[in-house]
Amino acid sequence: MDYIFHETQANRLDPPQDISVACSSSCSSVCYSAYALAKSEKLEFIETDDSNFEGVRENNPVQDFSIEINAIREENKVLESSVAEVKAENSRVREKIDDINGTYAELSKELHSVKGQLVVERSRCSKLEAQIAELQKRLETSQSIEDEVQQLRRQKSMVDRNMEMAAAQTQGSGGVWRWIVGKTNT
After folding, report:
1. Which helix (H) or strand (E) holds 129?
2. What ranges in 19-65 are assigned the alpha helix state H?
3. Within a 10 A sphere around the Cβ of 48, how many other Cβ atoms?
4. Burial level of 56, CB count in 10 A (0-12/13-18/19+)?
């Protein structure tokens, strides 16, 4: 009969003296490890006559990992759906960014065009202001000419009146000859 693990009181208390220190320490290390493993997993050591025996059997029944596997699969599905949602959101955001970039490009072109039109309008405005200034000078000049014309008209009117008065006096008095003749007649 073969024993897989058999510990006796004699082996535990007095190790044989002819074993080297290294062999003794490795032996005790293996024993303590096997003991710790046996205590933590509740191993059962059995006698066997079979030389193909695999070793220690565990008292605990085989655990069913299907529950844990299903839980991990469910968690994986949730994570995959979250990833799909994030990808969809990223796609929507990319589309919005592309739309915004397109709008920005169009607005930039429009702004450039409007700036060009503004330069043209400023130039036109400057020309119009120069024309207005010239016309104002002409108007001021024409106003002074108009004043001169009015003054000349008044002077002419006065001269015409004076001539009419002089003519009326000449006709009413009979003239110089009449005066001369009239003096002689009186």
Report:
1. helix 66-173
2. 21-41
3. 14
4. middle
Q: Which two tokens stand for residue 144?
A: 């002074």
pTM, full prediction: 0.36
Compute the distance between CA of residue 11 and CA of residue 115 in angstroms, rounded to an integer: 103
Contact 3, 47 (CB under 8 A): yes
Q: Which two tokens stand for residue 153?
A: 């008209």
Q: What is the pLDDT of residues 111-163, one digit of tens each?
A: 999 999 999 999 999 999 999 999 988 888 888 888 889 999 999 999 988 88
Is 7 in contact with 24 (CB distance < 8 Å)?
no
Element (H, E) at 102: helix 66-173
Using an 8 Å Cβ cutoff, are 47 and 1 in contact?
Answer: yes
* 52-57 contacts at long range (C-beta below 8 A, 24 or more positions apart): 53/2, 53/4, 55/4, 56/4
